[in-house]
Design a protein that fits this description.
Pfam family, one: Acyl-CoA_dh_1
Shape: globular
Largest sheet: 4 strands, mixed
Helix content: 40-55%
Organism: Pseudomonas knackmussii (strain DSM 6978 / CCUG 54928 / LMG 23759 / B13)
Family: Belongs to the acyl-CoA dehydrogenase family.
CATH architecture of the largest domain: Up-down Bundle
CATH superfamily of the largest domain: Butyryl-CoA Dehydrogenase, subunit A, domain 3
Domain Acyl-CoA dehydrogenase/oxidase N-terminal: 10-125
Keywords: FAD, Flavoprotein, Oxidoreductase
Number of helices: 11
Length: 397
Amino acid sequence: MKIGFSTADEAFRAEVALWLADNLRGEFEPLRFRGGPGDEHSFPEERKAWERKLAEGGWTCVGWAPEHGGRGLSINQQVIFHEEYARAGGPGRMGHIGEGLAGPTIAAFGTEEQKRRLLPGIVSGREFWCQGYSEPGAGSDLAAVKTRASFDAERNVWKINGQKVWTSLAHESDWCFVIARSEPGSVGHHGLAFLLVPMRQPGITVRPIEQITGTSEFNEVFFDDAETAAENLLGAPGEGWKIAMALLGFERGVSTLGQQMQFQNELDEVIRIARANGAARDPLLRQRLAEAWGGLKVLRYNSLRMLSGPQDGRLQREALIYKLCWADWHARLGKLAMDVLGPEAEILDGAPYELNRLQGLFLFSRSDTIYGGSNEIQRNLIAERALGLPKEPKAPR
């Protein structure tokens, strides 16, 4: 897909840039370029206030259909919005899981009552979501989940027992979408339910996981007879796998271009430092900087190919390679950043020894090839789903 921008699109770009310039200042000025990967712990309350500010301006859920509270922007205009947002240093979105994952999934599979009840809180920037997929024994292998959901017909609620892990911003979230095994004795893709679970209740314990960056945006979440009402089941019992896979398709939507603009900001910072400290004169580092620039352009063009197809959660071949590509690229950028910094990469000013931006980038990017499906799992997906190769033999359970 080759996106070309019309005169009207460029006028829209100017509108977005002007609004951001007018509003990313004052109380929101400290949020610029903050809250991205590895920095998601920063300014949580202020970034929630920013979500409400975006909503007031009509800048949340810009690609959603108007009947769901969105602006129904064209793909071109969505691309423009995400690019300008990142270019202006817009902070990491506290509402991105709700806007990019939960909301589109509810819109696609939810009842009219569920849409009326749950989508407005996302659009208004007042309700925040987290993802209950991975478990200690089911990280990249989602079909191995053991969290259980049993239906209490007398009270008309689902009771949930189990543990989720690597749950980003669970401690800041109002809701969690949970994949749980609703049919006793079921295995693999069968017998799963997709449940929407309120986080503020007895029976849910959130425990932070401290990372090598010293931050704790990831969490363990324990469910001990936690409850959610019957009307919070999305789809039917047993349809959890189908819905979960569609959600992963939404994850590879237009917002990937915003992610790439954040990557561009990081690369620009690395290049700036290379010019300032003389590292740009090293021919090997110059070559790696050029490779990083070219690699980011390839990511962009592949994203545009993804966006040329239906935006209904179906995973195209181009979408299957995206996570593997950006994870490797970003991990290499983290290493490049440290090599450009030279000895300063090993030094902090003093207690409390807070990492600078590029040190945090390097340490957090070590996880890129693991979370969201490890590189090994991504290669299996490409082999089996895109290329039609025989499935990898499974070890006996």
